[in-house]
Amino acid sequence: MSCLAMVCLSRHKVKDMNLRCRVALMTLPAPDISIRPGTPADSAAIGRILADGWRQAYSGFMPKSELGPRIDPDYRAREVGAWLSTQFDPNAELLLVAEQAGHVTGFLAARLGDRNDVGSAAQVTLLYVAPEHQGRGAGRQLLLEAAEWLKVHAPGPVSIGAFEQNPFRSFYEAIGGVVVKAVVVRVDAREWPVVVYLWPSPEALQEGIRA
Ligand SMILES: CC(C)(COP(=O)(O)OP(=O)(O)OC[C@H]1O[C@@H](n2cnc3c(N)ncnc32)[C@H](O)[C@@H]1OP(=O)(O)O)[C@@H](O)C(=O)NCCC(=O)NCCS
Question: How close are the terminal C-alpha atoms of the chain, in Å?
Fold first, then answer.
C-alpha cells in the first residue's frame, strides 16, 4: 500500500500539479458524496480501491515482491468477500462506503479494541479512497460518519495506524491526530515501521476534521 518510472521523470512537477488540483478541488463545495454501511455486494468495488490504494501509497517504498497479490483487485475482492461473508462481526466492527453517482469511491473499516496497546477504545483499520476521487472530501466524510458510530459503540480514544513511509499520512496530522507510538507490522517475511495516531475521543476526531 508501479508508476514510479513515470513519476521519477518529473516528480516535482507532478506533485505540484497534483497539489494545485487538490487545492482547487477542496475550495469547491463538497460534491454529492453519500456514506452508507458496506455489504458483501460491495466486495469487488472495495477490493479494487484497496488494491489501487496499496499500489498508490506503498509502491514508493515496498518492493513489488511484498506488494504481490495485495495490488491485484481480484485477489483483494475475494479477500474482502470472505471477510464480509464469514468473519465480519457487526457488534464489534464497522464498514462504511462512500458513494458518488451510484459508484463506490472509498471505504473505511473500524473495530473495537486496542490492537496497538495505546489506550484506544477502537481503531480505524482501513481508510482508502479511489485515487481518481481523492481530495474531494470522501476521506473526511467517512471519518466523520465513523465517529458517529464510535460515539455510541466506543466512546473513548480512537487510533489509526499508518506505515511510517506512507506519503498520505500527513492527512491524519492535518485532522488533529497525534503520533503516540511506533510499532512494526509484518507483511510476509518483512517488518515495516508503522506509526499510531490517537485522538482522545470520537468528538475530538470530528473537531479535528471540521477545524
Ligand atoms: C488519505 C486518504 C484516505 C484521504 O482521503 P481523501 O478523500 O483524499 O481526503 P479528503 O478529500 O477528505 O481530504 C483531503 C486531504 O487528503 C490528503 N490527500 C489527498 N490526496 C492526496 C495526495 N494525492 N497526496 C497527499 N495527500 C493527499 C491531504 O491531506 C488533503 O488535505 P489538503 O487538501 O488540505 O491538503 C486518501 O487520499 C487515500 O486513500 N490515500 C491512499 C491510501 C492511503 O494512504 N490510505 C491511508 C492508509 S493508513
Answer: 28
Taking the CA of residue 98 as reference, the ligand 1 atom at the shortest distance is: 7
Ligand 1 cavity residues, CB under 6 Å:
18, 22, 26, 53, 56-57, 127-129, 134-140, 162, 166-168, 170-171, 174
Tell the CATH topology of 31-210: Aminopeptidase (3.40.630)
For cell 484506544, the residue is: 120
DSSP state of 29: P
How much is the pTM? 0.87
Main-chain dihedrals φ then ψ at residue 89, nearest 5 degrees:
-115, 100
Mutate to test the pocket of ligand 1, among 22, 28, 143 (most ligand atoms within 8 A of CB): 22
Per the listing, cell 458483501 goes with 40
Residues whose CB is less than 8 angstroms from the CB of residue 103 and which lie 6 or more positions away in sequence, other chains included:
45
Task: Kindly list the domain boundaries of the chain, sorted by start residue.
Answer: 31-210
Kindly report, residue by residue over 97-147, the tens digit of the pLDDT. Answer: 999 999 999 999 999 999 999 999 999 999 999 999 999 999 999 999 999
| Cell numbers standing for residue 110 | 473500524
